[in-house]
Design a protein that fits this description.
Layout: H1 2-16, H2 24-36, E1 39-43, H3 50-61, E2 65-69, H4 76-80, E3 81-86, E4 91-96, E5 103-107, H5 114-126, E6 128-131, E7 134-137, E8 143-148, H6 161-164, E9 167-172, H7 178-188, H8 206-216, H9 223-238, E10 242-244, H10 248-264, H11 272-283, E11 288-289, H12 291-295, H13 300-310
Parallel strand pairs: 1-8, 1-9, 2-5, 5-8
Antiparallel strand pairs: 3-4, 6-7, 10-11
Helix pairs in contact: 1-2, 1-8, 2-10, 9-10, 10-11, 11-13
Length: 315
Amino acid sequence: MTEHALELETRLQNELGKVVFGSEEVVHALTIALLGQGHILLEGAPGLGKTLLSKSFARVLGGAFKRIQGTADLLPTDITGVHVFNAQTAAFEFQPGPLFADVVLMDEVNRAGPKTQSALLEAMEERQVTVDKETFPLPDGFLVIATQNPREFEGTYPLPESQMDRFMISVPIQYTAREDELRVLAAYNLPGPRSQSEVNLETISSEDIATARAAVGDVHLSDDLMGYVLDIAAATRDSAHVTLGLSTRGALALARCARIEACLQGAEYVVPDHVKRVAPWVLEHRLLLSAEAALEGLTVAAVVGHALDNVAVPR
């Protein structure tokens, strides 16, 4: 059954590779988020294709896509929706906001104010929004792709730990290799913007996605491997360099992503290497370094690497 998940990633890589070049690793992460029905945070400098990749990803999935630009004056009702008075019916009717879509791109999420971030938090965790004490469910395939520039802090509101914990994985967007940037220049150097809509992308049906998700359930995750995941979580909590370790939600995300990774590798069961492969994506945005660790110049990546190196691997 794992071939269904492999086929899904191959199709995503082929279709998105027509528009965004050199992003195979990020597409792999997007595939994990899609199969795990989790949200993803893309972090990187401006101009590296985060928005283009997200829009193209939504096109391939074929569902409704909405883009929200994070700004300081963005209100919660701007994303959730609002009740509007209908003079013909003499009643208030709910007008859904952009959150009511299959794929939602929250561009520069850290520029939105705390109230708006809280509204997004409910949508991400509960897959519903509450407006005027009335609750509205979001689409079954609801998926948030958020972007932020980690190097720019002017006019931003850092995401609280509770919000960061809602993202299943966080992936850094790096500068692409020279040969891939040459392809970008060759494809997009003409005057005027070249729209991604000019490229024909084949849509993946919801049935194919459901079949690929079902294949993940055929991969065995042993009790020893679940214990290994919890040992890694405990190592982050007990570290002297960390003030906020991995949550239970984070441990669950690590186990789930490891199982999906094993499925995408064509394996029938999860091994420690699968856990280590996805651990940086799952852990790094969830951990909070102590002030002493920051002064010493330690990074979250170094702390995660230390935990993975020192936790005993089950046989």
